[in-house]
């Protein structure tokens, strides 16, 4: 076995040289070295895992991500300087974590402390579930609507522009506009941009509402070396708008007549510059359990975002003052960001001028995004949420496996362990905390049937892992299509100094 370890060490040195020095320089040499490293790493890892699986099996996932990193070097889709930076960064952190894990598992194996490792993992799972629940409760309570905001008179209300980008939309766009023109907000203009739709139906629907005051804007093709198409549509809308406040929303958003007025009242009462809203699902059918959207809400609610000045934010509906948007540099400052609203929220929260709220029936803001579009959105934003960093995707995947799916596996296998009752009790308590946390995002936002939807939590966690890796693979090696446009290459060519996405929902 020593010769295998020596071969693995030699491969690691060659891999480090490839990622740090040769990435993107000589195509033939780079590809040959990549193939040698991939083959050696895969074969040696499998052989070591079969000979001493208690030690080596746990490092297999990190070896797999290192292979993905080598594939990234082999294909060389990124500019040379960026490829070198991201490949070396991923290699360094993945190798460091893998080596640390190997030392822990080797030590516990040699000292016959496997039980201690299992008990420590179980305790950390329980602690993690408690912390997730605590953070979710804090965010949920903080985002609740207050009934005490002072209503403003028609005279006191600022002018407001509702800005809706639309591309290849039909029924959802009509429903959205019907709700908007029914608004009781007195100083309202509605602008809808046809973002170069490939069908004629979208501009026809927009023009059908011209007699209701809806302004039609014909979008232009952006320079894709400088702009993501959606951000350019936002920029065009903002330039054409005249309101003091901008309300950006998707075509799947539905408002009650009083909703916009209430949102402005909340913004003014709290003295904020920006507001983002978590909508309710309007209808929950018997089989209608939205796992994709639930997991997007789950990650916004359960992480201690305020500690790191990364507040929860959703793109479904967000309100911002024109003046504040201008001071932040407008959309030109986030032209390549998958989630520009997340960048604005991060900046606004540093001056305590941002609020995240969740809708209820008194506010009356709903979203009914179809499952297919939910999946597309999840794929589009999941990898950028991790700043397009392979090592962060690896750590997130391991964390989900250990802390979210691990208690289920442990409970199923508890009968094979000594002191079965103790393990069953701890893992059962961990799962109770996880189910309650998941319930806030699913049942609380009406994304799942209240009687049994929360039971789909294991499937939702597994689905989230799948979406993460589909998103990773498409961004690194394929294409990410959004309404007929590939957003992959403009996003992946961002430099570290440019804003990265946090979330989009």
Quick overview of this protein structure:
The chain has helices at residues 2-22, 27-51, 53-56, 60-75, 80-110, 114-142, 171-181, 201-208, 229-240, 259-270, 291-302, 322-327, 340-349, 371-385, 390-413, 420-442, 457-477, 488-492, and strands at 160-166, 188-194, 214-218, 245-249, 253-255, 274-278, 317-321, 354-358, 365-367, 481-482, 485-486.
Relevant terms:
single chain, 505 residues, alpha/beta, Spore Coat Polysaccharide Biosynthesis Protein SpsA, Chain A, 56% helix, disordered C terminus
Helix and strand pattern? HHHHHHEHEHEHEEHEHEHHEEHHHHEEH
Strand content bin:
5-15%
Give average pLDDT, whole number: 89
Extended strand count: 11
Main sheet properties:
7 strands, mixed
In the CATH hierarchy, the architecture of one domain is Alpha-Beta Complex
By CATH, the superfamily of one domain comes out as Spore Coat Polysaccharide Biosynthesis Protein SpsA, Chain A
Taken from the alpha-carbon principal axes, the silhouette is globular
Estimate percent helicity: 55-70%
Side by side, the strands of the main sheet go: 3-2-1-4-7-6-8
Give the CATH class of one domain: Alpha Beta
The rounded distance between the terminal residues' Cα atoms is: 49 Å
Q: What is the number of helices?
A: 18
| Uncertain stretches of 5 or more adjacent residues | 494-505
């Amino acid at each position: 076995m020593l010769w295998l370890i020596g071969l693995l060490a030699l491969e690691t040195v060659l891999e480090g040289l490839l990622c740090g020095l040769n990435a993107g320089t000589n195509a033939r040499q780079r590809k040959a070295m990549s193939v040698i490293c991939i083959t050696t790493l895969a074969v040696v890892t499998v052989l070591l895992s079969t000979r001493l699986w208690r030690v080596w099996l746990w490092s297999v996932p990190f070896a797999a991500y290192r292979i993905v990193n080598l594939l990234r070097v082999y294909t060389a889709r990124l500019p040379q300087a960026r490829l070198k930076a991201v490949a070396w960064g991923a290699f360094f952190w993945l190798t460091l974590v893998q080596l640390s894990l190997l030392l822990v598992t080797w030590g516990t194996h040699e000292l016959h402390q496997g039980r201690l490792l299992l008990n420590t993992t179980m305790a950390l799972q329980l602690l993690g579930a408690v912390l997730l629940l605590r953070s979710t409760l804090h965010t949920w309570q903080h985002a609740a609507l207050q009934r005490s905001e002072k209503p403003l008179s028609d005279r006191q209300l600022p002018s407001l522009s509702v800005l809706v980008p639309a591309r290849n939309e039909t029924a959802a766009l009509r429903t959205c506009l019907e709700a908007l023109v029914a608004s009781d907000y007195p100083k309202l203009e509605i602008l809808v941009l046809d973002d170069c739709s490939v069908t004629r139906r979208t501009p026809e629907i927009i023009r059908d509402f011209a007699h209701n005051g809806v302004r039609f804007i014909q979008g232009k093709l952006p320079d894709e070396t400088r702009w993501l198409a959606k951000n350019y549509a936002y920029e065009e809308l903002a330039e054409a708008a005249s309101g003091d406040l901008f309300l950006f929303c998707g075509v799947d958003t539905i408002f009650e007549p009083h909703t916009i007025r209430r949102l402005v009242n909340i913004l003014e009462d709290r003295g904020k510059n920006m507001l983002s809203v978590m909508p309710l699902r309007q209808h929950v059918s018997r089989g209608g359990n939205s796992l994709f959207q639930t997991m997007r809400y789950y990650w916004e609610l359960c992480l201690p975002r305020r500690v790191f000045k990364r507040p929860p934010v959703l793109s479904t509906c967000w309100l911002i003052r024109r003046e504040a948007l201008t001071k932040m540099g407008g959309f030109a400052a986030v032209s390549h960001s998958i989630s520009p609203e997340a960048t604005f929220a991060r900046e606004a929260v540093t001056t305590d001028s941002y609020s995240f709220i969740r809708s209820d029936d008194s506010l009356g803001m709903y979203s009914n995004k179809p499952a297919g579009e939910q999946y597309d959105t999840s794929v589009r934003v999941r990898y950028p949420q991790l700043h397009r960093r392979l090592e962060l995707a690896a750590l997130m995947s391991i964390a989900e496996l250990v802390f979210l799916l691990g208690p289920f596996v442990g409970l199923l296998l508890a009968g094979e362990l000594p002191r079965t009752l103790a393990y069953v009790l701890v893992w059962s308590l961990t799962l109770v905390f996880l189910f309650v946390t998941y319930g806030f995002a699913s049942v609380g936002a009406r994304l799942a049937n209240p009687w049994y939807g929360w039971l789909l939590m294991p499937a939702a966690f597994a689905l989230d892992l799948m979406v993460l890796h589909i998103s990773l693979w498409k961004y690194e090696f394929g294409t990410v299509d959004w309404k007929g446009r590939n957003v992959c290459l403009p996003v992946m060519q961002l430099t570290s100094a440019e804003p990265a996405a946090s979330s989009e929902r």
